């Protein structure tokens, strides 16, 4: 489940955040490619809203050649509210749902598979993937939310039911999970990592 229904106001641009161009490709395309490269994920659903109409059109354009991708319209009230809405849908009842932010350009299918394999070892119904806060300091990134010594990565696993779920916390020291595109400064950091000096 690719979460792509939010405004993304920190980018300070009229462009919808999932469509932020990075080396000529929308950031959501990097996430979709990583999910398609996963050996475990069998269906991809992009959760959009009335706040991201251009993102909906972008995904609709690629549906023709990608039957494993679908779209679900959410209220667009916020990440937690949209997630609760998704979990309440009968279509996802008892499914294992990987939720991922649409702004993680460095994510790979291998990392998604690694997280899924760790989840399969756990006895808990949910898993929250965190990144050490030190990694943000190392790369001069501004975390959106700090929980003690860790930061939520934007990648989680849940069961499809609209109830509170006991979760395992998995901490991975990976820049691929830390660098999400929330601001122009994040793009500068990404370009440095890609060896691109452009600003």
Describe this structure in words.
This protein has helices at residues 27-37, 53-63, 79-87, 109-121, 133-138, 175-178, 184-193, and strands at 2-3, 21-22, 25-26, 44-49, 69-74, 96-101, 126-132, 150-159, 167-171. The chain is α/β, with parallel strands linked by helices and 199 residues long. The strands form two sheets. A seven-stranded mixed β-sheet has the order 5-4-1-6-8-7-9, with helices on both faces. A hairpin with a 2-residue loop joins β2 and β3 (25-26). The model has no long low-confidence stretch (mean pLDDT 89).
Which terms summarize this structure?
two-stranded antiparallel ribbon, seven-stranded mixed sheet, 23% strand, globular, alpha/beta, 9 strands, 199 residues
């Amino acid at each position: 489940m690719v979460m792509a229904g939010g405004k993304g106001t920190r980018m300070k641009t009229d462009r919808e955040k999932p469509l932020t161009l990075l080396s000529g490709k929308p950031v959501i395309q990097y996430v979709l490619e990583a999910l398609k490269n996963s050996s475990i994920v069998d269906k991809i659903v992009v959760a959009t809203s009335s706040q991201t109409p251009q993102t909906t059109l972008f995904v609709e354009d690629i549906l023709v050649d990608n039957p494993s991708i679908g779209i679900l319209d959410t209220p667009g009230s916020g990440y937690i509210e949209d997630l609760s809405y998704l979990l309440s849908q009968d279509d996802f009842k008892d499914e294992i749902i990987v939720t991922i932010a649409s702004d993680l350009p460095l994510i790979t299918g291998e990392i998604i598979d690694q997280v899924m394999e760790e989840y399969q070892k756990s006895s808990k119904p949910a898993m929250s993937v965190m990144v050490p806060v030190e990694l943000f300091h190392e790369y001069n990134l501004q975390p959106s939310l700090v929980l003690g010594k860790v930061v939520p990565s934007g990648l989680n696993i849940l069961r499809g039911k609209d109830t509170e779920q006991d979760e395992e916390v998995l901490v991975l020291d990976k820049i691929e999970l830390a660098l999400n595109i929330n601001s122009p400064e994040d793009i500068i950091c990404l370009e440095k990592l890609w060896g691109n000096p452009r600003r």
